[in-house]
Design goal:
about 325 residues; alpha+beta; Cathepsin B, Chain A; Helicase, Ruva Protein, domain 3; four-stranded antiparallel sheet; three-stranded mixed sheet; globular; USP; Peptidase_C19; hydrolase; Ubiquitin carboxyl-terminal hydrolase 14 (Trinotate prediction); cysteine-type deubiquitinase activity
Amino acid sequence: CYMASLLQVLFSIPEIIQQFSQKEFPYFFIKQTTSFLVTDIYFQMCKFCHHLYSGKYSEPAFDENNEPFRSDTGIRPLMLKKALTDSHIEFKTFSQQDVVEFFMFLTEELTSFQNTNQMPTSIENLFHFSITEYFQLQDSSSDVQSRKLTEKILRLSIPFDKVETAIDEQQLSNDKSIKCEVKKLSWENCYEHLCAPTIIDNMTINGKTGPAFCYTRLSSLPDYLVVQFYRFSFDPVTFAPIKLDILFSPPKILDLSLFATNPNFGAVIKPSNQTSPMSDTDRFILSELINMGFDEQFIKKAIIETKSVGVNEALDWVISHQHQNIPVEF
């Protein structure tokens, strides 16, 4: 279902529809290519797009008495799955996987294929946006350093102190004798958590060392913004992901004006010529743990606290502190 849901969302985007829509399908490929079509990613994506918008698979099915019934004639993109994931140890199986990881994998595979075949449109570029991280020493408003990063996903972590317990009205209406409590979190609280500064215990800026605040701000918007809500944690013993039953309903329109506004330092910001305040080892640890699904700000603090020893040490720190609130509010 993770693959089906993602493909349906992607093929609602006009640029992707245009990229994989061939009016003369499949004759265009028979005339133009000699590659093995079973493993040709472009052919399989065009085939999926053609079937999805043909209308054939959305027609209702009827039995012999002309009664509608559920049939199994829907689109089953097994050949597309094989072409995309045959070399991936997890996605080639039929087990449930993380849809965000599959999104990252799919866009990278499609972009690699497009670059190899010199195709004009990059799928990844539809989702790319820039964020700027500002680092400010706590005892000096003038000592500020910044760096820019390119992202494909806006990740929202959970401020656990803002989670509220409420009554599930839908379940209550079905059986009023059972008191159904659920945990809920508002978009406003998540957004405040996103915009709040995080603290780094030890950092050097302009030759001065001490505790610093890190502000993350939006520098540019993508054509299509992908938002991930971290509704899971990890078992401290097995490191297995644990889903958190927290209801979260984002608004239909996201107001990101605060996230796109420069922090108020009380002084003019002078970006450093240094492209990154992190070493190669730190960036490797950060990349590895982000790929595991951990919050970026937690990882940065873990790197500082474990003195950049390695991935395992940072992972242990993140696991043992995952329910603590890193953001510092003034």
